[in-house]
Amino acid sequence: MPDSSESIELNIRDEFSASSARAAVVSVVRAYGIVQRLMATYFAQFDLTPPQFQLLTIVNRLRKPTQRQLARELYVSFPNVTVMLDRIEKAGLILRFPNVEDKREKLVELSERGRSLLKKIWKVHQEQLDLVMVGLTETEQKQLTRLLHKMIAAHTNTTE
Amino acid sequence: MPDSSESIELNIRDEFSASSARAAVVSVVRAYGIVQRLMATYFAQFDLTPPQFQLLTIVNRLRKPTQRQLARELYVSFPNVTVMLDRIEKAGLILRFPNVEDKREKLVELSERGRSLLKKIWKVHQEQLDLVMVGLTETEQKQLTRLLHKMIAAHTNTTE
DNA sequence: GCACATTAGTTAATGTATTAACTAATTGAC
DNA sequence: GTCAATTAGTTAATACATTAACTAATGTGC
Questions:
Q1: A85 touches strand D (CB under 7 A)
Q2: In which band, very low, low, confident or very high, does the pLDDT at B18 lie, cut at 50, 70 and 90?
């Protein structure tokens, strides 16, 4: 049963008190957690998860996309799209049918049920988004968006 | 094969162009995605995932915490801690032993291997954090942290 | 001191996400 | 025209995360 006083060494740097980068990264992660929790609770009312909702909105916007297109738009792996579509197809929210011009591809579309569910959610969705940002004024929200866009741009330029 | 022009209705609000809250939420989610990707790639070198690294740092800081304490500190469910500990215990990075004063509890501790791995990572971890925020000046990083803290505070006040 | 509630941890079921390894359809070199 | 390479999608293995349902230990009322 080792009673180590050895972790002191690490604890010195444990706080990273000098680093503004660390503080920023940690707050991004925390903020995301809050967004996730709020949205998950909200979407559960409709028997949806936040990623499923996101998927539905993109299927709607793209109009019969291939699964490949969906993955790119969602910034998610291709197999993940397959599995997510399997589920919401089983729930009757989307339809998949092969593209006659290229039989490798499958085109995805909202079902009548998916379309009406999306309409229903949309009516109250904006209020939820406002609720997430309730602590900030509109000016601050715009400032936050600007800063995060700048941070994001530094990576998307080099990656894509 | 329904060729619907029905989604137009939704597409009107699809952009949410008027909402600064939506833009802010979306950018938080995108920024988190970038943090996740970078960190996952980085930690993979050490055969760790970001949550596993986070777990190790907290075990180190708390000094023989119970699993309950870990869950609270990680903002994660209790069963999740069990499963994550199972894995990193199997990898030989932590030890679990029952608390003699309350045999329901298990105390968690870094193994020698876990401690030395953590030390190794720590040496270069700060650089990774700086890399995430490379697009922002230090002033902007602090501004970002301040805004996110304010946003977070609006929720933690009511929730905790 | 015994029954009941509480607390700590685990197990099971489900959903999200990844990479690696596969099948099937298309394209392209020759 | 046929064989190889590419592309679209699926399946398998693994990890993270949740809630619900369980076991085991502790504490409390009486």
A1: yes
A2: low
